Amino acid sequence: xxxxxxxxxxxxxxxxxxxxxxxxxxxxxxxxxxxxxxxxxxxxxxxxxxxxxxxxxxxxxxxxxxxxxxxxxxxxxxxxxxxxxxxxxxxxxxxxxxxxx
Length: 101
Fold this sequence. Notes:
Layout: H1 5-10, E1 16-19, H2 29-39, E2 44-47, H3 55-60, E3 65-70, E4 75-81, H4 85-99
Parallel strand pairs: 1-2
Antiparallel strand pairs: 3-4
């Protein structure tokens, strides 16, 4: 998603990334900073704030998910797995389509 920040911003949308637990345990602020720096993220990036960091996975359906949400209604307009670059491209293309309506 970070590679598509300019395209996302051009639609007036916001992109948010949530860092969830990994094999070594819960994510800490240092993990978040390393994640942001490693992938040069220029988007809002947060840690799952639930006590055991399972809320994002439980509510959103696991890791590497992409959603387009209408903020006015909080309705999910599109969902895909962002694990594959084709799905990220599909999400951004759909976002551009929705923005042009």
